[in-house]
Write a structure and sequence with these properties.
By secondary structure, this protein is α+β, with helices and mostly antiparallel strands. The radius of gyration is 31 Å and the shape is elongated. One of its GO terms (biological process) is lipopolysaccharide biosynthetic process.
């Protein structure tokens, strides 16, 4: 695990160093107040520039590993060989050596101990991004689109993904890392950006307030669990936040230094932000208003033009791309203004906007606005909470409002925060959409806490002590550290091999084994329609389609489920040759007529997940001989059904009054009273489990359950599907694929939890298909995924 982690952090550090080289060369004439300010602006500008380099190569169809490596090597060569730049780097190296020498003279051991302790403390946080990607939006869209670009070596339309046209500056960096290394380093891009925000807060606090404020602001930022969650996932919110923070930071420096370089940088970074997400256009407008106001007050009329022109030029490529393909630069929004195209219907747009604006949050009434701070502190679940925001911000509100009266610095940033806050309140009330203002809020909170300490006479002497500063920083960062520690312990060891990765993904993503199976079987040569499984787009190596919106919307398929031939023709019209169905998200009924059985070949199954291959030639499904002995419970040995074992005290009725057929039926009262039987199976075979069941009262649940074990009796995995049992006898069934190492299957007759259910006439048979006189195994390949 150490080797795995070090390797990935070396790769992301390499990206950071190359970004620093590029950014620092572009900022040679900029005077920085500290080394930290220099680092954060150089690396961030370099990352944005590299993103546009990837975009340029992608548009030309030249985005591949060799071209990227050649460009990076040329960049390093220029830094080493070009005389003016080489002289600059030699000067920087000399200054660095002097700084290291000063630290050694002061207390080298002290700083080494500090670094060692910091690494140990930060270890849980550093482990979080090393887990395989499972976050919804990352695998539904952000990584999925990057994977397509990396595979095709071209930036192309992706009509079957959610938001096929969008600003994608962060996705360009994901594409880069997928080409160079893997998806873990793609997640580490956001981790790097999270660290850069922390450095920006420290340098900004140090420049404008004090080093203590910078340290506390950094601790607040890293002490927010939502920040750590987003910083370890391939979302784009941290990247957006970095660019927004540096845009405001740059504008702040321009306001106080009057240096045009800072105004230019403000335009560049707000342009990067707008090319990352549409919501950043709000900051373009807000910062533009500030620049315009200052220019009028100080009669520097060129400033707004420079700022807006640079920001617009930076963001323009993505908006022009949107307009070229859809006629709408902000697709899919503002369709009433720009019109709509074939991708989204009016119903799609209505549903999408409703989901964003009305499906979450607390409404938009005056009462909701007044109580919003309380909800953000103590009722965050209503805002789609992937991870919580720190409550420290809520408790700092009173002193923040008080000190904003006396401080122009605090008042100005607070006004910017409140403006975005109102935009968020009246648009999409999703918690992570607040992230762009969290660094600003962290800086202000740290500043007012320091002023509060200095304002109280009995705290003045103690507040300036470095020990108190350190304790306060530890207190502020502790919620994040505790959250990261809990997440790492909860998830277990970091998966470092392919088998460990597959096991981890199968544990967290129900349908992952089916995608793994299809990828192993067909490579990338397939087109899959996934019904109610839209977030799994990243894991399909072939063409993936299926979503609530767009040209492959679910309504096209769900409306055809009652007619298997119409379903087949609709899938063929879309170009699909496989269909995967996730039954857990929608309890739909599949056709069971002759056409469905002849043209939909089930090739892989597990609980709630079915993967079919569409067959032009008619197939015949064949059910093998019954594997269960005494499947109807009719044969008794003493008072127990022969061949069955039991746990607890399941009831048996032999009167024939409660049975589906024959005279015997069994009843389970709670999941602790069950019958079970173990039978031999073929590895990779496809098996159908079924039984008849009924219940005496409503709301009863039962399990369709198979436990798999190897030849030595070792447990491999379990398949469990829950079914609601009605008052009349009805057949319930589940089809499952045996793992590659399976030798035995244990079939259970079990209610769920405390339900009371009658069972009769079980069946467990192998499923095969016959084509033109040949019998084919339904599931020729499989990979073992332990539970």
């Amino acid at each position: 695990m150490i080797e795995f982690g070090l390797l990935h952090y070396i790769v992301i550090t390499g990206l950071g160093l190359i970004s620093y080289l590029l950014g620092r060369e572009l900022l040679i004439k900029v005077k920085f107040a500290s080394i930290w300010e220099e680092i954060v602006f150089s690396i961030s500008l370099g990352l944005g520039s590299i993103s546009y380099l990837v975009l340029t190569l992608g548009v030309l169809g030249l985005i591949n590993r060799s071209n990227l490596l050649v460009i990076f090597l040329k960049l390093i060569a220029v830094s080493v060989l070009y005389p003016p730049i080489r002289t600059f780097w030699l000067y920087k190296l000399t200054a660095f050596q002097k700084r290291v020498g000063i630290l050694k003279k002061k207390s080298g051991v002290k700083y080494l101990i500090f670094i060692f302790i910091s690494i140990i403390v930060l270890l849980p946080i550093m482990l979080m991004p090393l887990y395989p990607p499972i976050a919804w939006d990352s695998i539904e869209y952000h990584l999925a689109v990057a994977k397509i670009y990396a595979h095709e070596h071209h930036i192309k339309p992706t009509p079957f993904l959610r938001f096929p046209f969008f600003p994608q500056t962060n996705e360009m960096l994901f594409t880069l890392m997928l080409i160079i290394f893997d998806d873990i380093t793609a997640q580490l891009v956001q981790f790097l950006m999270m660290v850069l925000v922390a450095i920006a807060l420290y340098s900004w606090g140090h420049r404008s307030f004090s080093s203590r404020v910078g340290l506390w602001a950094t601790a607040l930022w890293l002490g927010t669990p939502l920040v750590l969650w987003l910083g370890s996932s391939a979302y784009i919110d941290v990247g957006l936040t970095l660019f927004v923070t540096l845009a405001v930071y740059s504008l702040w420096n321009w306001l106080y230094s009057k240096e045009w370089n800072w105004l230019i940088l403000a335009g560049v970074f707000v342009g990067f932000a707008a090319s990352s997400k549409y919501s950043a256009l709000v900051f373009l407008g807000l910062l533009g208003i500030i620049v315009f106001y200052i220019s009028i007050r100080e009669r520097r009329y060129l400033a707004p033009l420079v700022f807006v022109t640079i920001a617009t030029a930076i963001a323009a490529p993505w908006y022009l791309r949107n307009f070229y393909y859809t006629g709408n630069p902000v697709f899919p929004f503002l369709s009433s203004l720009f019109g709509n195209n074939y991708l989204y219907t009016a119903e799609d747009l209505k549903a999408l906007l409703y989901d964003l604006q009305h499906a979450h949050g607390i409404g938009r009434s005056l009462t909701a606005l007044i109580t919003l701070p309380w909800h953000l502190a103590f009722n965050q679940d209503v805002f789609i909470m992937e991870a919580p925001l720190s409550k420290t911000y809520f408790f700092a509100i009173p002193i923040l409002l008080v000190f904003s009266i006396y401080s122009t610095k605090i008042r100005g940033i607070l006004a910017l925060i409140l403006a975005y806050f109102l935009f968020w309140f009246f648009s999409a009330q999703i918690l992570r959409y607040l992230l762009p203002i969290i660094p600003l809020l962290s800086l202000l909170t740290a500043a007012v806490v320091e002023r509060f300490f200095l304002w109280l006479p009995f705290l003045q002497r103690w507040s300036v002590h470095s020990f108190i500063t350190g304790i306060m920083a530890i207190f502020l960062v502790s919620p994040g550290w505790l959250y990261a520690t809990h997440k790492v312990l909860e998830q277990g060891p970091v998966p470092v091999t392919q088998d460990q990765r597959d096991t981890y993904l199968a544990r967290h993503l129900l349908s992952y084994p089916a995608y793994k199976f299809l990828n192993d079987l067909k490579g990338s040569k397939y087109t899959l329609y996934a019904l109610y499984d839209e977030n799994m787009a990243y894991f399909a190596d072939g063409q993936f389609m299926g979503d609530w919106f767009g040209p492959a919307r679910y309504s096209r398929i769900s409306s055809k489920l009652a007619d298997s031939q119409a379903l087949y023709e609709e899938l063929k019209t879309l170009g699909a040759n496989y269909i995967l169905i996730n039954k857990q998200r929608s309890r739909l009924e599949l056709p069971d007529d002759k056409f469905f059985q002849n043209h939909f070949k089930l090739i892989y199954a597990r609980a709630y997940v079915l993967l079919f291959e569409l067959s032009e030639k008619p197939l015949k499904r064949k059910l093998g001989p019954e594997l269960l002995k005494n499947s109807g419970f009719e044969n008794l040995e003493g008072e127990q059904p022969s061949s069955w074992q039991h746990v607890g005290k399941p009831a048996i009725d032999t009167s024939g009054l409660r049975s589906h057929s024959g005279f015997v039926a069994v009843r389970g009262e709670g999941a602790e009273n069950v019958f079970y039987q173990t039978v031999p199976v073929k590895p990779g075979g496809l098996y159908l489990l079924s039984y008849y069941a009924r219940a005496n009262r409503q709301g009863q649940m039962a399990r369709l359950q198979v436990n798999w074990s190897n030849a030595q009796g070792g447990f491999l995995k379990t398949d469990i599907e829950l079914v609601e049992i009605g008052a009349d006898w009805k057949q319930y069934e589940m089809t499952v694929t045996a793992p590659s190492q399976a030798a035995f299957a244990t079939v259970y007759v079990s209610p769920h939890e405390q339900s009371s259910v009658w069972f009769d006439d079980l069946s467990f048979v192998e499923v095969t298909y016959t084509t033109e006189g040949k019998t084919s195994e339904a599931s020729p390949l499989d990979t073992n995924f332990s539970s």
